[in-house]
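Hey team,

Filing this mostly as a record. A colleague (T.K.) asked me to run one chain through the structure pipeline before their review meeting, and I want the input and output archived in the tracker in case anyone asks later how it was produced. No errors, nothing strange. Just documentation.

Input sequence:
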Amino acid sequence: MTAMRALGALLLLLLPASAPTLVAKIGTDPHPCGAAAGLGSVWVAAYDSGRLLRVNTETNRIVQRVKVAPGICPIAVAGRSVWVASDKTDVLYRVDPRRGRVFTRLHVSHWPAHLAVAGNSLWVSSYEHGQVVQVSLRTNRMTRVYKLKGNPSGLAGTPGALWISFGRTGTSLARIDLATRQIHRTPIGHAGAGFLAALGGSLWTTTADGYAVRIDPRTRRAVASFRIRGTPAGVAQAPDGLIWVAEKEHDTITRIDPISNKVIDVTPAGNGALSIVRAAGDMWVTNFAGTDLWRFDAG
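Output structure:
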């Protein structure tokens, strides 16, 4: 039986991947921005209206709308709560999904860009002031502030570490050792990294000069880069193991095979495809220049 399973897995890897199928378009408030999966739902931060939208993955309907603040985009689910931050108010909000209301507000430095969970804490990058802030999920308080050169953007956790990408002219990732608090830099060979994710044992980031870059967190080296025509944004891994990269200028999804390190295909997506999240076995893409969330069968 074990040999048969192994053979089946091998055949799946050898067979060509079928193109993603669009299975639903879910209407949202204008400019749906960040997205996250958790608590049995997909959560979307609507930038203009400032509402947090809860999408039922069985019905493809919005079942909850929570008024937070204009300018919300970065989002994470942690501690039975949904966290969002606004670059208009410079506030981190903790939302109780059961009561449908904000119950914690924490002022942070200008332009909170991304959120991540690592080491039992929530982390916030402040793009303009070069700070990364650690927030306790238990006390809702800042427990540590790291001051970094450059413009901290994307955040991702790996065992024992937090990784940070840097926008504008930044050409490296920073790694914070959560035990020793030491910081090391890893060159990535491209400039202006934004989104960052830990996927399948690798780190993946997208850059302003039009690339998706793969980094090995063990060797702390960039091991592959992939040209993405336009402005690549969010990155996530599908159930079949393929890496999906959203591109907001030409409205596409690029899929990359991490085994062969090759681009598989490019698929049309919504207007300003920005964030990608995996939930209920499918891939969900926010369309920042539009008013909807697209759900794809991963193929």
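Quick notes for T.K.: The helical segments are 2-14. The chain has a mean pLDDT of 94.
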